[in-house]
Write a structure and sequence with these properties.
Bound molecules: beta-D-glucopyranose
Number of strands: 10
Strand order of the largest sheet: 1-2-3-4-5-6-7-8
Distance between the termini: 34 Å
Helix content: 25-40%
Radius of gyration: 19 Å
Shape: globular
């Protein structure tokens, strides 16, 4: 069994004197996505802008890692060397810096590259080119920064191309970041099934395998307006539904063994509006426990917005969220 994606494998006591983050026992496997912010067409358009206090609240609750989805493709040129908009790069630096200062590791990805998903062959060079621009910029940053090649590649066209494209992107990153951890995944929406069929990329240096988990989809995406089907409200927790999630632990261990890589469960979550909170938290707890059983880092989708576990307006965790995640509400004076 592998212990998460972290360099340090034991639970750490974060925060020394002078640090903005109060001392708290971290769960080395606990991660949360800061999604719907820097991955929106413009930050704030999807109702959330990342604030330093949010990152401090995440650290204070005992998380060890944040995953930062970023829509680089909306801020980069279309011709080589695909230059990245400087103010946007500085904003990403600011957020990554806040997280590292709070003793959180950061998984920085390429998210919502919609043009790539439509035509991967045409956008292959640009995806690799984005990494040729991003990777050198961060080559001197701490080891706590981790790269993830691309969120949820999908569509029939990518199936035969993906392993090569992913390896090419990793080789590009390796030119300037020989020792940085890099996250790779399978081509069908980062599903567990597609990771189970993915070969380990033929590249040097530390690699982490990833998958996302949203099963049963009819439960996790009920009432979600952005999917092209009408999924009415429903509960979760029948014995066969629980067994399916329990089986994820053994599958995760097996895939980790085969790939010879630690595993990041990079997204799992349930749409918030209209969902029964008890069923919702029971599902989060079950998936989190399965990941922990397999020694995998688990990354909740999502901190804020429509899959939220946190109420940004109230600056507080939603009732039941931290319990479901096996974390504790920080003491009021901490
Ligand atoms: C997407 C989000 C979506 C979530 C759940 C993520 O990968 O970026 O927009 O809400 O999956 O479907």
């Amino acid at each position: 069994m592998r212990l998460g994606i972290l360099a340090a494998s034991a639970a750490t006591l974060a925060a020394c004197a002078g640090s903005p983050t109060p001392a708290v026992e971290r769960n080395p496997l606990a991660c949360v996505n800061l999604g719907n912010a820097l991955d929106a067409p413009r930050e704030g358009q999807w109702g959330y802008r990342i604030e330093k206090r949010d990152i401090e609240a995440i650290a204070a609750a005992g998380f060890s890692t944040v995953r930062l989805p970023v829509r680089w493709s909306a801020y980069a040129g279309f011709e080589p060397p695909y230059p990245i908009d400087e103010p946007f790069l500085q904003r990403v630096d600011e957020v990554v810096g806040w997280a590292l200062e709070s003793d959180l590791e950061v998984v920085l990805n390429v998210h919502h590259y919609v043009e790539f998903h439509k035509d991967p062959a045409a956008h292959r060079d640009r995806l690799v080119g984005l990494w040729a621009a991003i990777a050198p910029h961060y080559s001197d940053w701490p080891d706590g920064l981790i790269f993830e090649v691309l969120n949820e590649p999908r569509g029939r066209q990518v199936a035969d191309l993906w392993d090569d494209i992913q390896t090419e992107a990793i080789e590009e990153i390796r030119k300037t970041n020989p020792d940085r951890r890099i996250v790779f995944g399978g081509p069908s929406w980062n599903s567990l099934e597609s990771l189970e069929e993915t070969p380990r990329p033929d590249a040097d240096g530390p690699l982490i395998g990833t998958f996302h988990y949203y099963e049963p989809f009819e439960f996790t995406h009920q009432n979600a307006p952005f999917i092209r089907q009408d999924l009415p409200s429903r509960g979760w927790g029948a014995p066969e539904e629980r067994e399916e999630i329990e089986a994820v632990a053994a599958r995760t261990e097996a895939v980790s063994e085969r790939l010879d890589a630690p595993i990041l469960l990079g997204e799992f979550g349930v749409y918030l509006p209209g969902t029964d909170p008890d069923a919702r938290w029971a599902w989060y707890a079950a998936v989190r426990e399965a990941a922990e059983q397999a020694g995998a880092t688990w990354c909740v989708w999502n901190f804020a917005a429509d899959f939220a576990i946190y109420d940004v307006a109230e600056s507080d965790w939603l009732p039941g969220a931290l319990e479901a995640l096996g974390l504790e509400e920080p003491a009021p004076d901490s």
